[in-house]
Design goal:
Length: 138
């Protein structure tokens, strides 16, 4: 696929390139703040750990496939994604490993509570109070 074809398809068939984010709003407490978790349906993992406003703005990510000119596949949010297992994630080094471990810990806790993202029935689920609390190691 060349760039011209990709741009044309992006407008005529957006469902091929836009991948939904499933939000658990106000689900996580860390320190004295509450956070929302955004699960990427493309990379199949937690992509965002954010405040309560982000789920109102971020609905999806856009994936650009690899192009004929050698441009590799890219994700619109690769630079700040928490899903270190995703091949399009652009975070490097030690930070990548920390993100992977933190996201896996949170996903495990959600599974234990029966709240795995694969069970989500809609794109935004708001929690009255957080069901997961993380503490800093001292």
């Amino acid at each position: 696929m060349d760039l011209h074809e990709y741009i044309k398809n992006l407008w005529t068939h957006p469902e091929k390139y836009h991948h939904k984010i499933i939000w658990y709003i106000n689900v996580l407490r860390f320190g004295n703040r509450n956070y929302s978790l955004g699960y990427c349906t493309y990379g199949k993992g937690i992509a965002f750990i954010a405040d309560f406003l982000t789920p109102l703005v971020v609905d999806d990510i856009i994936i650009q496939p690899a192009l004929d000119d050698g441009t590799p596949a890219m994700c619109s949010d690769a630079k700040w994604c928490f899903n270190a297992r995703c091949p399009l994630n652009d975070v490097k080094g030690k930070r990548r490993q920390q993100l992977k471990e933190n996201a896996e810990e949170i996903e495990k806790k959600l599974e234990e509570l029966g709240l795995g993202f694969d069970k989500a029935k809609c794109e935004r689920i708001a929690f009255e109070k957080p069901v997961i609390e993380l503490r800093r190691c001292k």
